[in-house]
Amino acid sequence: MLNTSTSTTGPNRLLRSFRKGFSLVELLAVMSIIAILLSLASVGISRIGKGQGVTAGLAIGEGLLAQARILAMNNNAPARLIIHGDLNDSDPIQRERYRRMMMVVHQTTDDEGRINTTWRRVGSPTFLPQGVYYSPEMSSADMRLGGVLPEDRHQLTNQAADTWQCHFYEFNGQGVCTTPGAGFVVVNGARPSGAAQPMLGGKLDLGGFVVLKNGGTTMIRDITRLGAVGTR
């Protein structure tokens, strides 16, 4: 059985004291904190060494998941953390994005409470540190039972043609994760041109956490079993 720590980690701690339905002031305050943390992480990426890249990548992932959950609850409509997953190394921009670019998108409701199914982007994309990649092979839909995480096509900029296949984690309007128990795993490695997965070095350099139903996360402690618990 996959071992995970039991304490809630990362920005999700901020959510414990909040009730469903944030005031505008509360929402802006929490969003500002998350934005600052992500900005600091982005600035520090160029200084991150190999041993710290995975840790930084997990922290960024937790921050974006917390942001998605807050938006879902505030809008009473679905929100997602999406990760670029469309392999296209012939385009330098897409090569840089592949399994490293992440973004929060959300839907809204009208005055009568009906959900507008158009996905709206939030802010600018966030990238994992250089050499760190999201691993859908190890990030199963349920880290105990396996299963493939959902995918969907998302428009990443104002250009309609800039639409690509993405992996995603979704929260409903009540802030509940639609794939409770899903894993979020990142690896440190080098990805040859055209290769779907990066090549890991001699030292296993990866890490992950499990996303709980309430949006909290628990770190995966036994990383040596991640490869065996991936999609199946």
| Widest sheet, order of strands | 3-2-1-6-5
How many domains?
1
Helix content: 10-25%
The sequence of SSEs as H and E is HHEHEEEEEEEEEH
Structural class: alpha+beta
The profile of the biggest β sheet is: 5 strands, antiparallel
- What is the third-level CATH name, the topology? minor pseudopilin epsh fold
Q: Given the C-alpha coordinates, what overall shape results?
A: globular
Describe this structure in words.
By secondary structure, the protein is of the alpha+beta class. Helix 1 (24-44) packs antiparallel against helix 2. Strands 3-2-1-6-5 form a 5-stranded antiparallel beta sheet, covered by helices on one side. Strands 4, 7, 8, 9 and 10 form a 5-stranded antiparallel beta sheet that branches. It is globular, with a radius of gyration of 17 Å. It has one domain (10-229): 3-Layer(bab) Sandwich (minor pseudopilin epsh fold). The chain has helices at residues 24-44, 50-75, 92-97, 226-229, and strands spanning 79-84, 101-109, 115-127, 132-134, 151-155, 163-171, 182-190, 199-200, 206-211, 217-219.
